[in-house]
Q: What sequence folds into this?
């Protein structure tokens, strides 16, 4: 099919696409609500089955289930599969939809999770429709995998993801693009640490010298952590939460800090993890414990990532789209597949804005272009 034909094909599916998008947004799926995420997984499984895919629910004990769908190109295929990757969960608690119902205004669709990433789920359904109807013939199997706990670190979805990704030649991640519709060819790695101090409590007026002030200790540690920021290396260290103490007249025995860490390479991640884990108390009467670590590796801009991006850019040019590339400090499930050494191109979702914000939206006019781009890219991955 020519680029113009595939675009016209998806254009003809726009009314159906909008009602499907509304349905997916209205099925709220907050990461903390396992029943809700499981429900959207089951619903999508049925939709993928309708499009001729085999769908499986990969269960997760305490978090939302993972959904995997596979489209088989035939028994003689030798090329390794391509994986479309995304997540079912959103950051929005149940009930957000009543406060901010799905709506379309000035050719933008608004609603909780529409941009991150219900529109990406819609794109995957559109691709599966095109595969079923022979509008795209990639000559290889195509997998779709959506985790149910991406927004909270993908702890339970990760084993399912790595097992499926292992056999794939490339991963196309349907997360929202950057501003201007740019694909993401680099993401920082993300870590989270909790540092706790156990000191000694004492009366603040009678015998303060007997106390070991945990708040003072954690404050000194926070300053030390702040000094680990390294702009040249791309490392950021942010203490986002600090807690401690019980009353103003008590030398506090307990305090803790929660720290966000972002790194540009696995090497920088290992170095900073070792530094934080090795921190010692300034006051020898205080005991310091460190929990946590790097929970998402960086998505590094490897030659494989760049090659995939160039293929996407060429496919976009045929559709008269100028697909830029850029980097972000946020992590995604694409970071895991990239760290496995699988070429991964991220940010291939529908253009929009306001991820994790109340004004979240997508550009309705971008849906057919993105679906067409994905189909063309599938055929040219090689
Ligand atoms: Zn996302």
A:
């Amino acid at each position: 099919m020519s680029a113009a034909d595939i675009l016209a094909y998806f254009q003809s599916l726009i009314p159906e696409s909008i009602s499907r998008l509304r349905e997916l947004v209205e099925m709220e799926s907050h990461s903390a609500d396992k029943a809700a995420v499981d429900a959207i997984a089951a619903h999508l499984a049925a939709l993928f089955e309708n499009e001729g895919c085999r769908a499986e629910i990969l269960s997760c004990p305490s978090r939302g289930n993972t959904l995997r769908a596979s489209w088989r190109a035939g028994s003689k295929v030798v090329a390794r599969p391509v994986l479309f990757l995304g997540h079912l969960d959103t950051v929005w608690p149940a009930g957000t939809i009543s406060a901010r119902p799905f709506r379309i205004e000035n050719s933008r669709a608004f609603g909780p999770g529409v941009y991150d990433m219900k529109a990406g789920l819609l794109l995957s359904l559109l691709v599966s429709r095109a595969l079923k109807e022979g509008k795209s013939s990639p000559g290889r199997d195509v997998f779709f995998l959506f985790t149910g706990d991406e927004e909270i670190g993908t702890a339970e979805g990760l084993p399912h993801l790595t097992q499926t990704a292992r056999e794939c030649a490339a991963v196309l991640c349907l997360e929202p693009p950057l501003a201007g519709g740019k694909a993401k060819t680099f993401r920082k790695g993300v870590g989270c640490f909790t540092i706790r101090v156990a000191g000694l409590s004492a009366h603040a007026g009678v015998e303060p010298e007997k106390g070991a002030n945990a708040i003072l200790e954690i404050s000194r540690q926070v300053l030390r952590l702040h000094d680990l920021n390294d702009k040249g290396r791309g490392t950021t260290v942010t203490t986002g939460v600090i807690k401690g103490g019980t009353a103003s007249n008590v030398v506090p025995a307990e305090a803790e800090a929660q720290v966000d860490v972002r790194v540009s390479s696995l090497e920088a991640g290992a170095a900073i993890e070792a530094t934080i884990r090795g921190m010692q108390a300034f006051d020898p009467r205080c005991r310091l414990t460190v929990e946590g670590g790097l929970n998402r590796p960086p998505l590094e801009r490897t030659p494989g990532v760049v090659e995939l991006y160039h293929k996407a850019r060429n496919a976009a040019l045929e559709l008269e789209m100028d697909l830029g590339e850029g980097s972000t400090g946020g992590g995604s499930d694409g970071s895991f597949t990239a760290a496995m050494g699988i070429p991964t191109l991220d940010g291939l979702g529908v253009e929009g804005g306001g991820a994790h914000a109340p004004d979240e939206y997508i550009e309705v006019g971008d849906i057919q272009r993105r679906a067409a781009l994905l189909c063309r890219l599938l055929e040219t991955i090689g």
Q: What stands out?
A: Residues 87, 116-117, 150, 175, 332 surround zinc ion (CB under 6 Å).
